[in-house]
# Entry
Amino acid sequence: MNKDVFYLPYPWAHYSKKLAYKIEHPQFAGFFLPEDTLGRGVRLVIGREGSIAEGNAVTMYWLVDESDGIISDIRYQVFGASALIGALEAACQLLLRKNYDQARRISADLIDREVRDKSDAEAFPREVYGHLNLVLSAIETASEQCTDIPFDEVYIDSPLHPDTVSAGLYPGWENLPQADKIRVIEEVIQKEIRPYIELDAGGIQIMGLSDQYQLTIAYQGSCTTCYSATGSTLNAIQQILQTRVHPSIQVIPDLSFLKQ
# Structure
């Protein structure tokens, strides 16, 4: 990567309000020492990327539960631009209580979504995306130190956050042809639901739409064995679609795709 990208000016006016707040009020700054693992059944893993000599350096500290690979606590140290602080804060918020396998699936888009004010407005200006990639490299380095730890392939917690989705009901929903209704729903799923489900190696597919509001979906991947597929994850999917498309939408899972 061309290091000149790290020396561009940082347009604070283009940061989202959530991002600016996280930069000014960091919660995860700090570090762990080997003695912090004593008697806790956790492993200290450290992911480093960049260098002080080049102007930007990131060090992430994870305490990983050695029984299930869950990141039980997380801290970071950083030298460099304000965008790095914001990216690390958002990443740590995403990573906490996730396992290291989930951590490897985190993307720049997911980090950005974590601090957006509106779901369709990016939090980080494109000029600073190089810093997000620096954080992702540190995450990958830390994850590689955990591959011998077993992890549960069935995840219980839903990664979806309906409260972060901005309201914006689709105009003229009742008058749209059936094919257009499905296209609108698929677009919302693709942008605001699928990225989070894929974080848990899962998937979602539209099976059909009846009576304008009854949406049938099928889960894929790890979602077919997830306890929350008919609980918190389903509720989150429905709330997002009710917020972004129409308040009367009801989501029904095709139970034939779920594994007992």
Notes: Confidence is low (pLDDT under 50) at residues 155-159.
